[in-house]
Design goal:
2 copies of one chain form a homodimer. By secondary structure, chain A is mainly alpha-helical. Chain A has 10 helices and no strands. In chain A, helix 2 packs across helix 3, helix 3 packs across helix 4 and helix 5 crosses helix 7. Chain B binds a DNA duplex through helix 4.
Chain lengths: 204, 204
DNA sequence: TCCCGTCGCTAGCAATGCTAGAAATCCAGG
DNA sequence: CCTGGATTTCTAGCATTGCTAGCGACGGGA
């Protein structure tokens, strides 16, 4: 096996692995698309298998179970969020903090299913200390950078966690219809004003 | 039917209604207990029916479906939260805002399943303008009162929404293992300091 | 050409939310 | 104390879910 592989230049094995990787990604994309179109309830193994034009057992040769598929979607979603935050530039007269906050909330609003997989649904993604996926660190890093201008002498990570938590709380409560849309703007102004700690309280 | 009821003093009809109401509450309590002990995944109609010592169809004579049961648990949970917040008195040297925040986070930490039903799980509880359950208004009212001392000239409802959102974000992200427990104290200090807007920044 | 290993599919299992129709229960009236 | 009729409760089952065992087909190496 190994000798033949070496002789023919690993092309057969390689092609198979490549095709497998493509199908792996195809499953993730299909799951995300289906979830974004009809919600996670609609993402059943049967419908997903139908969408990728394979049978259900194929899914299980790529992922340990449905949860693992959702997790893969969530991790790639963190990559998306990191990109969105990185490209969020302050508009005229706005701070970087505000730009990041608005980009974050827009992401949560426009891609609710993806956001749910990332931050709402129960998952065993290791956020702690060990093998944290790079995408997560990227996203968090963008938030840290956004907070830096108003950090003062406060702990960067803790402050970022507060910023993130507030945005996450707003995003999920708004999504659940638990906050009044009337206050959307005021709410964000108040949060940013409080975090910036009265640097210029013109808006108040 | 009505004549006999009037004659015998509505005792038969009354007793039936009372027993029905008791069973109604029994189902809610059983669902909450089961969820708090083993999580919502363990709350199946069969296990719930077994716990109340009836068969599944009985559940459906009281509630439209499983979602309605969860919703009933959630609404009563809001009553619990309102009570907890009302009884949260500032400890020595602490502000009312801090007392409320700590009580809120303790509630979310100690009763995660109940908290999930109230604020995380998707539900069609009318939070908007129409028939909002009293328990919800009570809980929100307690938060409004807690925020009042640091309100200044800011909009009370919007500020309360910010406060609530931040607490909710912290509670859910901590619960999901997405924030570092090391920062638990610092995080709350930063949030309260920001919302109080540097009234006295000794802690920083 | 044959053979073996990999691959994907068909068919099925247990568990879920929910419901129809049978069975049991209960309370007047005789 | 019985009996009829209505209400209530249970048994049994359906469709759907996540997941898996075991068979068949395909393809590359001798």
């Amino acid at each position: 096996m190994s000798s033949s592989a070496r002789l023919c230049g690993v092309t057969i094995q390689d092609r198979r692995e490549r095709e497998r990787a493509e199908r792996h990604q195809l499953i993730i994309d299909a799951a995300r698309d289906l979830a974004e179109q009809e919600g996670w309830d609609a993402v059943t193994t049967r419908r997903l298998a139908e969408k990728v034009e394979y049978s259900q057992p194929v899914l299980y040769s790529h992922f340990k179970g449905k949860d693992a598929i959702v997790r893969a979607v969530a991790i790639q979603g963190c990559g998306d969020l990191a990109r969105v935050l990185r490209e969020a530039r302050p508009s005229r007269g706005g701070s970087r903090l505000r730009a990041a906050a608005e980009a974050y909330l827009r992401f949560a609003r426009e891609r609710p299913a993806l956001y749910d997989a990332m931050f709402v649904q129960r998952s065993d993604i290791p956020w702690g200390t060990d093998e944290v996926p790079r995408e997560l660190l990227d996203a968090f890093g963008e938030l840290v950078a956004a907070v830096e201008p108003v950090r003062r002498d406060r702990d960067p990570e803790a402050l970022t966690e507060v910023f993130w938590s507030s945005l996450h709380g707003i995003a999920t409560l708004v999504r659940g219809g638990r906050l009044r849309p009337v206050h959307d703007d005021t709410r964000l102004d108040l949060l940013l004003g409080a975090l910036s700690l009265a640097q210029h309280e013109d808006g108040l």
